[in-house]
Amino acid sequence: MAFALPDLPYSGDGLDPHISSRTLEFHHGKHHATYVNNLNNLTKDSPLADKSLEQIITETAGDAGKAGIFNNAAQVWNHTFYWHSMRPGGGGTPSGDLAARIDAAFGSFDAFAEAFTQAATTQFGSGWAWLVADGDGLAVTKTGNADTPVARGQTPLITLDVWEHAYYLDFQNRRPDYIKAFLDDLVNWDFAAENLAKA
Ligand code: MN
Known about the structure:
CATH architecture of the largest domain: 3-Layer(bab) Sandwich
Bound molecules: manganese (II) ion
Mean pLDDT: 97
CATH class of the largest domain: Alpha Beta
Largest sheet: 3 strands, antiparallel
Order of helices and strands: HHHHHEEEHHH
Low-confidence stretches: none
Strand order of the largest sheet: 2-1-3
Number of domains: 2
Radius of gyration: 16 Å
Helix content: 40-55%
CATH superfamily of the largest domain: Iron/manganese superoxide dismutase, C-terminal domain
Number of strands: 3
Shape: globular
């Protein structure tokens, strides 16, 4: 069965004014869709076509001969996860177990926000910033290009796409302003809490 482009979990203008409908139109409708199409073409008539994205990612990670399949499968997974990492009216601070785990790992929410901002800012070129569950604790990490914590046995809780295509129409070169908008106004802590509960 072919992989499909999932719908956005909100309307096209749901993240206005921080991330515009024009950005989502290109980012979801063109970039994400292209990764899905590429993956379908690359896995057509292969045993991988019937596997889950997570299986394809873990089975092709580090295999230079399958880099194209890994990159497209990981980008399909990462983007779907990214859409859910945001919500209209998001941002602010988490509560409950997630808040306690963040305090335990980083000392405070502000220290987490600083570490996440640092990771997202310093990812050179294209990539992703993440909050993950790793063993018993939480950690901030960053990955280059399509790379994903899914390939490393970590459980992602939220992610931020820091490829320029994610923010250039709305913020041009101002990646720090995009990161601040994500943390202040967009991040979906309910989604992070759901992922933590499954970790
Ligand atoms: Mn992207």
